[in-house]
Amino acid sequence: MENILLAAHVLAGILFVGPVAVTTSLFPRFAAPATGTGADAVATAPAVATAPAVATVLHRITRVYGILALVVPVIGLVLAAVQGRLGEIWITIAMVLTAVAGALLALRIVPAQRDALTGSLDPGGLRMMRMLTGVFNLLWAAVVVLMIVRPGAA
């Protein structure tokens, strides 16, 4: 049972969290030409006509895969319970970081993407979205490191 849960946890992380990390990172590049701001708007000037369509698809992938990614911590919690590791500090830290990353995605990044698509996001908001996306990806990187290193594991 543990091996099946571990495989499902890792596979779900790769298939669901990975695409969200990529789409959130790419979105600002394609949203910039749509808003006509930033260096990205100049760098991708020939593709300005397709940028809004790409940004729309990236936003949709972010939303759908963000919801699907909820299965990753659920399977992780079940796996930790089966293994009797719920009380270990690295599991607690990973759960907190995962919750922060999920909240950041749901409460800040996805709404900022939506605002960028409607044209109501200013250049400062686009810069903030880039920063938040970097923090989101760093949080997931920290969770992965915790899963490998397992500080304080019994």
Task: Tell me what the structure shows.
The chain is mainly alpha-helical and 154 residues long. 83% of the residues lie in helices and 0% in strands. It has six helices and no strands. It has helices at residues 2-35, 38-43, 51-68, 71-83, 89-118, 123-149. Helix 1 (2-35) runs antiparallel to helix 4 (71-83) and helix 3 runs antiparallel to helix 5. It starts with a helix and ends in a 5-residue tail after the last helix. The model has no long low-confidence stretch (mean pLDDT 90).
Characteristic key phrases:
154 residues, mainly alpha, 6 helices
Helix and strand topology:
Layout: H1 2-35, H2 38-43, H3 51-68, H4 71-83, H5 89-118, H6 123-149
Helix pairs in contact: 1-3, 1-4, 1-5, 1-6, 3-5, 5-6
Provide a concise account of the structure shown:
83% of the residues lie in helices and 0% in strands. It has helices spanning 2-35, 38-43, 51-68, 71-83, 89-118, 123-149. It is elongated, with a radius of gyration of 18 Å.
The biggest beta sheet reads: none
N-to-C SSE series? HHHHHH
Quick one: how many beta strands?
Answer: 0
Q: Overall 3D geometry? A: elongated
Query: What is the rounded distance between the termini?
Result: 20 Å
Range of strand content:
under 5%
Q: What count of helical segments does DSSP give?
A: 6
